[in-house]
Amino acid sequence: MNTAHVVAEPHILYLGTPVVLISTVNEDGTHNLAPNSSAFWLGWRGVLGIASASQTTQNLLRTGECVLNLPSVNEVAAVDRIARTTGTNPVPEFKQSLGYVYEPDKFGRAGMTRVASQTVSATRALECPIQLEAVVSAVHGMGEDSDQMRGFLSLIEVRIQRVHVHPDLLMEGHVNRIAPDKWSPLIMNFQKFYGLSQQVYPSRLAEIPEKAYEQLARL
């Protein structure tokens, strides 16, 4: 393998992140569903990177709650149907330039079914195999050191309240463990959709019982 690297300046750094469908409640009581590919989890906390002016962000700040619906590779067509839509009307100028259109019924356009949540007002997307009910715990500005970025992006920390999992994903003999070999999350890789390949190497971290993280998860 050639070990010589070159200096590159990619316009984006979407280096492979999970796709999340964030459902929130609009000011008029209708429900919004928005794709996001800037999310990660630690314990039962999640962090979302999102445009500050988006409808989803405004709903999160106003209501303080959401559902993070995690699509598998099987729901990719539904995700793509709302990939360039927005719940903001009129459509912001920047999104207009990218070809976004206003869509008041994101669930309908995606072809997904709304299901009532148990701890938040935002509804779950039935077709997504994993659904995380969550509340906002902190909001941080991103790029505050840049005059060009300041106020444009937000990092929203959420606390997971309840986890809904399709039983087919559970590890045999365990009611609280998701089997990684059964879960195939949808991945955004430089604006293209991918799934996961087979496990490539056994992990020493897997030798640690998941229960060892329970205390961290509940903080």
Please provide a written account of the structure:
With 219 residues, the chain is mainly β. The protein has one domain (15-217): Pnp Oxidase, Chain A. Helices cover 13% and strands 33% of the residues. The strands form four sheets. It has a seven-stranded antiparallel beta sheet, covered by helices on one side.
Short note summarizing the structure:
The chain has 219 residues and is mainly beta.
What keyword list fits this structure?
single chain, 219 residues, mainly beta, Pnp Oxidase, Chain A, 7-stranded antiparallel β-sheet, 3-stranded antiparallel β-sheet, 14 strands
- Number of individual domains: 1
State the major sheet.
7 strands, antiparallel
Q: Encode the helix/strand succession as letters.
A: EEEEEHEHEHEHEEEEEEH
Q: Note the overall shape.
A: globular
Number of strands: 14
Fraction of residues in helices? 10-25%
- Termini separation: 45 Å
CATH architectural grouping? Roll
Annotated CATH homologous superfamily: Electron Transport, Fmn-binding Protein, Chain A
Mean pLDDT, to the nearest integer, reads 92
CATH class: Mainly Beta
CATH topology: Pnp Oxidase, Chain A
Fold blueprint:
Layout: E1 15-18, E2 20-25, E3 31-36, E4 39-42, E5 45-51, H1 55-63, E6 65-70, H2 76-81, E7 85-86, H3 93-97, E8 101-102, H4 106-110, E9 114-115, E10 124-125, E11 130-142, E12 153-165, E13 187-189, E14 192-194, H5 214-217
Parallel strand pairs: 7-8
Antiparallel strand pairs: 1-13, 2-3, 2-6, 4-5, 5-12, 6-11, 9-10, 11-12, 13-14
